[in-house]
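Structure in, sequence out. Go:
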């Protein structure tokens, strides 16, 4: 039996960066920031347990002062401080994982970095492990697994009912966020797109 793939946090982060860039391109949205990215990575890990009963990526998440952080991703973008991350690059993500990420983005990507910071501060997994003035305390996977336990049934139901729409969005994100692909993937000389006004 083939072992299920664990992505790197960098792959998942790149997907979120690409997704926010597409919002900017199509809806005058906002580019991703390091703080917002950290919170989306944490929420994606928690929701992966709620939906698929497994972790999404292999890197550890730590409880820092301003919320959950994946240290290597934080250090990669810390030079930007609160400025936008604009390095859009292609990333290989399978359909099911991309669909889950679209669900996370549509659920939480609408919020600002500060709003997501406040949200994660109110969650049990973070609060249980945060110690003031310490940055290296891990949030165990077992705690993240329990974060959405009470909502798990409703989350899985909503996800399943909207899977096809989410999947279409996720696929279009990949095409639209990578300029070279826009030139290559066409049908009847038109870019493959979905109705971006459609909501969950």
């Amino acid at each position: 039996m083939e072992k299920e793939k664990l992505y790197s946090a960098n792959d998942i982060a790149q997907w979120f960066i690409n997704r926010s860039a597409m919002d900017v391109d199509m809806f005058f949205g906002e580019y991703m920031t390091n703080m917002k990215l950290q919170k989306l990575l944490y929420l994606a890990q928690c929701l992966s347990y709620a939906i698929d009963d497994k972790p999404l990526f292999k890197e550890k998440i730590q409880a820092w002062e301003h919320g959950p952080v994946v240290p290597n991703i934080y250090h990669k973008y810390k030079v930007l401080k609160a400025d936008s991350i604009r390095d859009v690059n292609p990333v290989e993500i399978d359909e099911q994982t991309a669909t889950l990420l679209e669900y996370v983005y549509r659920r939480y990507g609408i919020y600002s970095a500060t709003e997501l910071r406040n949200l994660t501060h109110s969650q049990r997994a973070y609060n249980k492990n945060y110690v003031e003035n310490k940055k290296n305390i891990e949030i165990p996977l077992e705690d993240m697994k329990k974060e959405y336990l009470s909502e798990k049934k409703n989350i899985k139901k909503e996800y399943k009912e909207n899977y096809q729409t989410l999947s279409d969005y996720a696929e279009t994100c990949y095409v639209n966020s990578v300029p070279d692909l826009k030139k290559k993937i066409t049908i009847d000389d038109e870019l493959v797109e979905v109705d971006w006004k459609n909501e969950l």
